[in-house]
Amino acid sequence: MSNAFREILRKIGSGPHTGENMTRLEAAEATRMMLLQEATPAQIGAFMIAHRIKRPTGEELAGMLDACDQLGPKLQPIIDSQRPVIVLGTPYDGRSRTAPVTPLTALILATAGQPVVMHGGDRMPTKEGLPLVEIWQSLGVDWSRLSLAQTQQVFETTKIGFIYLPSHFPLAASLVPYRDQIGKRPPFATMELMWCPYAGVAHVIAGFVHPPTEGMFQGASALRGKPQYFTTVKGLEGSCDLPRDRTPIIGTWQPGSDLERIILHPRDYGFEGKEVPLDEKALVPEMQLVLQGKPGEFTQAAIWNGGFYLWHSGVATDLSSGLAEAENLLKSGQVAQKLQEISKAVASLSTFEKYLSGAGDLTSGG
Questions:
Q1: 110, 115, 261, 337: least surrounded by Cβ within 10 Å?
Q2: Per-residue pLDDT for 252 more than 80?
Q3: Coil, helix or strand for 193?
Q4: Burial of 56 (0-12, 13-18, 19+ CB in 10 A)
Q5: Are 212 and 229 in contact (CB under 8 A)?
Q6: Residues near 362 by Cβ (< 8 Å), separated by ≥ 6?
Q7: Which domains does the chain possess?
Q8: How are beta strands 202-207 and 229-233 bridged, if at all?
């Protein structure tokens, strides 16, 4: 048992009258001890539920991110990138009600030359929703088969990368079962939304559900002085996907600056509509229709999101031109070609890995 961890646990778990917040250093140390399994399972579970009840602070999130920066993976900067790399922070426990458009948004951005990094794992408690990695697999891109070095190769050649927790950050993946055991999302689920597994200049776009989360994001980024650019989106199921049935709530800032609001009314641009419900069996066929440029509600959602992020990342000069460019990239087949490029790049590396493994077996046997 870690006595140091016990003292931190006592500090946050003493109730509303005598309990205290952790300092940034204490939060970093607690996170480090949990990731390295220096704390016992009982201590880790107790911390997660106590911290959830207390609620995290921006300073505590900053410390947790410090520990992840120290122990976690990072994709290295793309030399020829002229813009900050966009990091899409979406809930790891996936989607259950609305169809995710995030992979299509990433493809549109990469097709236009804007690099994108995503991160996440498999189906995760407590929601057990559809995760991004499964959607990519159904589209023919299996990020789970790549090492970090191979992911870097794909990132450099295609402008899209995906940090897959079980392979690239197993220390963090080892804490996932606790979410099921405590039956609640721990504050790690909040920290993950603003985690940046990229070593260069980044623009983190984090989804959120509850308004206080946005303030915690801002407090943590101000203390850490990074990422260099930050955007929050009250998106569909806490994701970065902009809604079409209501006005998106978007905030943007740089560390040390005040939050600025971006107010967009979908109806003003002809994109107001109902959200597409999630049907896991129909999702990929629906995405294929979007990639073919076929009209429909899901295509409208892809253009609405792709157009906004093309503008917000600086690829397009204004929202109207961003929307037009997103529509053109889809209808021209360029986004579909980008998907094929990524699929071939991932498949070739996976095949090469299989070849090396087979050669190693033959060598050891002969």
A1: 261
A2: yes
A3: helix
A4: buried
A5: no
A6: none
A7: 3-54 (no CATH), 85-335 (3.40.1030.10)
A8: parallel
HSE-up of residue 180 (Cα within 13 Å, Cβ side): 9
Cis amide prior to 91 (ω within 30 degrees)? no
- Check whether 1 has a pLDDT greater than 70: no
The three-state DSSP-derived secondary structure of 169-191 is CHHHHCCHHHHHHHCCCCCHHHH
The C-alpha atoms of residue 14 and residue 19 are separated, in whole angstroms, by 4
Q: List, as one string, the DSSP characters of 108-127.
A: HHHHTT--EEEEE-SS-TTT
Query: Residue 285: CB partners within 8 Å, gap ≥ 6?
Result: none
Yes or no: say if 231 and 260 are a contact pair by the CB < 8 Å rule: no
Q: How confident is the model at residue 350 (pLDDT cuts 50, 70, 90)?
A: confident
pLDDT, residue 359, reads 47
Average pLDDT over residues 2-6: 90
Q: Model-level pTM greater than 0.85? A: yes
Written as one letter, the residue type at 329 is L
